[in-house]
Design brief:
Blueprint (H helix, E strand, L loop, with lengths): L1 H13 L1 H4 L21 H22 L7 H20 L3 H13 L9 H24 L1 H11 L17 H4 L12 H17 L18 H7 L17 H6 L22 H18 L3 H9 L34 H24 L5 H23 L2
Helix pairs in contact: 3-9, 4-14, 4-15, 6-7, 6-9, 7-12, 12-13, 14-15
């Protein structure tokens, strides 16, 4: 029995890298003291992202469904790599900001090894994510960053990796109230787990999770969030839990097939253009509208606001009434060009993972040079898909 117990314990430890992607972790194995190293669960999960993407592609092929398009998948993952380039050369702002508030302004010190602290932090992170995510849809300047994630017209596991470079500079603010009592490492554990959980819900392979649909954010709920159908707009903001959407009136169940992407689609694969195009659109509108009040509304009202007579978030009637099937952005690149991009992209990803594991051995100057090379390579993939 002792041997069996020891075997089960070792199996539990070995499966941790996979379990953490579904938030299936124990309190003791994820409770870290203040002097412990900052958890890097997301970095450690990057090889698993690739494995799950490959598994999803195989399952889609076996089911005879549309598989992951090379152009859409490559550019989604490229956006995720864009997000990590700044983190290679400086500490993440959410770590610095949260740590400063906790060290200087906290009201009380909750024990890092208490189950209650763990549970409170889990709920607090998801509550903070709900309000950040809602603000990212309802405040135009925040949407300018968040729209990158919604620009994918496919919905698969690569979509989860399509991230904005700029979003990290605003999202951290919403978690600062937790720093008044939750230790930094406890917060960071749940911040990483919350984002990891959101990876696997970006799939069309899972229809329903039964009773769990009432409590958890699931693939079905998140498909609605990514939809541009009118019933999908500004719905289902939760990260791990769906209860806050039910509480605050932003929940919608999946009631019809979903058309994915932005309400006004992009016409380019250029990853830099995807990151900045809405900022340029905002600037043009800021210049065009008359009066300081209206100019401020361009920045702080919703992206659907159209003018002085419009409500804060705009009118649902102004949004195109879209239903699948829809025409998606295609690439005119040849099969040979797509194969070249895919092979080069896999090599760049391998190089990136190697660099990430050894960045502590490299100088700041060398990291900047490598980051510039990665940026140039990923941008050229977009040029090839655009045939430009």
């Amino acid at each position: 029995m002792e041997d069996l117990g020891g075997t089960m314990e070792r199996m539990w430890e070995v499966t941790f890298p996979v379990r953490r992607m579904f938030y299936l972790v124990g309190i003791n194995e994820t409770s870290l003291p203040a002097d412990a190293a900052i958890p890097k669960y997301i970095e450690g999960s990057m090889p698993f992202f690739g494995g799950f993407v490959l598994l999803e592609a195989i399952l889609l092929w076996l089911k005879g469904r549309e598989s992951i398009r090379i152009s859409d998948g490559v550019m989604s993952v490229a956006s995720g790599l864009f997000l990590y380039l700044p983190k290679m050369v400086h500490r993440a702002i959410e770590v610095v900001g949260y740590s400063y508030v906790y060290e200087h302004w906290r009201l009380t010190t909750l024990p890092w090894d208490s189950p209650w602290t763990w549970v409170l932090s889990m709920i607090g992170v998801d509550f903070g994510f709900y309000w950040f995510h809602r603000a990212a849809h309802e405040i135009n300047i925040f949407w300018a960053a968040h729209q990158v994630h919604h620009s994918a017209e496919d919905y698969n596991l690569t979509t989860a990796l399509r991230k904005s470079v700029l979003q990290q500079y605003t999202s951290w603010i919403f978690y600062l109230p937790m720093a008044l009592c939750i230790p930094t490492n406890v917060f960071l554990v749940h911040s990483e787990m919350n984002l990891l959980y959101q990876f696997w819900i970006h799939t069309e392979l899972i229809n329903s999770l039964g009773p769990l649909e009432y409590v958890l954010n699931t693939p079905s709920h998140h498909r609605v969030h990514h939809g541009r159908n009118r019933y999908c707009i500004d719905k289902n903001y939760g990260g791990v839990l769906i209860i806050f959407d039910r509480m605050f009136g932003t929940f919608a169940a999946e009631s019809e097939p979903v058309a994915y992407g932005l309400t006004h689609s992009l016409e380019t694969w250029n990853p830099i253009e995807v990151q900045i195009f809405h900022l340029r659109h905002m600037w043009n509108r800021f210049v065009e509208v008359k009066g300081l009040c209206n100019k401020l509304k361009v920045i702080f009202y919703g992206p659907g606001w159209t003018g002085p007579a419009s409500p804060r978030l705009g009118r649902i009637e102004d949004i195109p009434d879209v239903h699948p099937p829809v025409t998606k952005l295609q690439t005119n690149a040849s099969a040979l060009q797509c194969a070249y991009v895919l092979i080069h992209f896999l090599l760049v990803n391998g190089f990136f993972l190697l660099l990430l594991a050894n960045k502590h051995l490299l100088s700041q100057f060398y990291l900047w040079i490598v980051a510039a090379y990665l940026l140039w390579s990923l941008t050229n993939f977009g040029f090839i898909f655009d045939c430009s």
